[in-house]
Amino acid sequence: MIIKIIIVGLLAFMVYNLFRALIIMNKNDPNQPSMSKFIGRRVMISVVIVILLLVGILTGVITPNPRPY
What is the H or E stretch that residue 30 is in? Predict the structure, then answer.
């Protein structure tokens, strides 16, 4: 159950970074950090989520759905 909570938290942080990048893109303020900083964080978080899912499936912590239909 803890791995699912971690994944949901990372997904929420990923969405937060997406909206931060959106706000910075719309303001176009040179004093603010670059939009690519937040987009880069989002990509790195998605890589961490995929790795966590793969490790969870391989170790048996997460069981995939045997019949997806």
Answer: none
